[in-house]
Amino acid sequence: MAKPKKRYVCSECGGVSTRWQGQCPDCSEWNTLVEEVGETKFAARHDLSGGGRTIQFEALDAPTAPLVRQTTGLAEFDRALGGGIVPGSAILMGGEPGIGKSTLLLQAAARIAKAGGEVVYISGEEATGQIRMRAARLGVSDSPLRLASATSVRDILTTLGHGTPPQLLIVDSIQTMHSDQIEGAPGTVSQVRASAFELIRYAKEQGCCLVLVGHVTKDGSIAGPRVLEHMVDTVMSFEGERSHQYRILRCLKNRFGAVDEIGVFAMESEGLAEVANPSTLFLSGREEAIAGSAVFPAIEGTRPVLVEIQALIVRLQSGATPRRAVVGWDSGRLAMLLAVLESRCGLSFSTAEVYLNVAGGYRLTDPAADLAVAAALVSALADKPLAADSLWLGELSLSGDVRPVAHGALRLKEAEKLGFRRATGPEMSGRGKSALAYGAIASVNALVDRVLGAA
Q1: What's the pLDDT tens digit per position in 306-327?
Q2: Is 99 marked as binding a ligand?
Q3: Are 79 and 164 part of one and the same domain?
Q4: 229 assigned ligand-binding residue
């Protein structure tokens, strides 16, 4: 329905003005302009007398040509996508400035082009000369991809329509694109929505894979209208701290694969390098056992990743308010665990500062990390190191019970490959054949006894 247009009519002479003002421009009377909403045509039902196109229905089991995925040449990128890019799909990739989005896409585009694929890379933020400088630094200058710097969606689609549709189309970024069908500056909600719609429609009609790079807001969400994430098939987030070496490509939405799959990369001087075994990256530097350190087998999609959780307890001598600082975990969940340990186990944290850190800048959201965090806190409080070859997993309830975790066998299998020999967690069936000595506990009290009695 069209938006009704406002107009202002003079009650004295009937003159019409498009904006309100104190004096009528026709009769010069004051305060006589009254707002009047223009007539808007609205029909409760569509008029079908003009005809319409008949929709052809199809059976659910009708034969369909299978979609063959195209690998990008980066195994970690393919893993996050679910096996590679799908023809005709639209991918939205977001991430903080300087995290490496353009570097990753340029590396993937160069490898696809070298393998014989037709790739078009369009940048709205950089000149072609700047992209060539990055390509030279990455060592991919000899890649036969087509490069352009443009911001007009009409110009882009007109140029692409004159040749063979590319296999991969990268637009960096969607916030810089401009459609002359919509009023407004690039980056506005209407411009982002309209530009993305035209580009996605081209990708669906021509069967090429479209990758849109999106800016993010200060809270980490992709900037622009929320409908943009609904329009695309896959939403990916490139995460990591610029002060740390590693980067994680996380899949938040995928119509063609599993959600929460991750690909791990390490930022090096020559670009992003794949990390085939991220557990070794997050566990590096654990040569000797230290109080307050516990290892937890996290699950990202279908990939197990072992991370180190570090805790530090500092007793206060004065009556100052103790501080709680958390990096890489939910601060609210830490407060809950401290309350459970004080209430159910009689441990006192009220007069101590508590610092918790997930090593390597990793961010944990898995509730099964409760037991590992609790073990690290008790170990730091008692100043008693945990066994270096042990790991901890399980979710704690407010009653102090240890609850089961998902994918327990997969977690233990990954730990066994990295040389761990002991594990503590809830009752678990179907662990399969494993050399790990698994100790099942039912409550947080048993956890405290096991930590304090550890050798």
Answers
A1: 999 999 999 887 777 889 999 9
A2: yes
A3: yes
A4: no
DSSP classification of residue 317: S
Buried b (16+ CB within 10 A) or exposed e, 313-351: beeeeeeeeeeeebebbeeebbeebbebbeebbebebee
The response to whether 441 counts as a known ligand-binding position is: no
Select from 260, 276, 292 the last residue of a domain. 276
Contacts of 331 (CB under 8 A, 6+ apart): 324
| Cβ atoms of 236 and 249 closer than 8 Å | yes
For 220, the 3-state DSSP assignment is: coil
Residue 18 DSSP one-character state: S
Q: Is 102 annotated as a binding residue?
A: yes
Is 76 one of the annotated binding-site residues? no
Residue 261 lies in a domain: yes
98 annotated to bind ligand: yes
Could you tell me if 227 and 337 lie in one domain? no
96 marked as part of a ligand binding site: yes
Q: Residue 416 to residues 38, 118, 279, 413: CA-CA distances in angstroms? A: 73, 43, 12, 5
Q: Are residues 289 and 429 in the same domain?
A: yes
Question: 315 - beta bridge partners?
Answer: 352
φ, ψ at 282 (rounded to 5°):
-85, -10
Dump pLDDT digits (tens) for 27-49: 788 887 877 655 545 555 766 77
- Any binding-site annotation on 95? yes
Residues 196-249 have pLDDT tens digits of 999 999 999 999 999 999 988 777 777 777 788 999 999 999 988 777 778 889
- The residue from 212, 241, 276 where one domain ends is 276
Work out whether the CA dihedral 383, 386, 392, 394 comes out positive or negative. negative
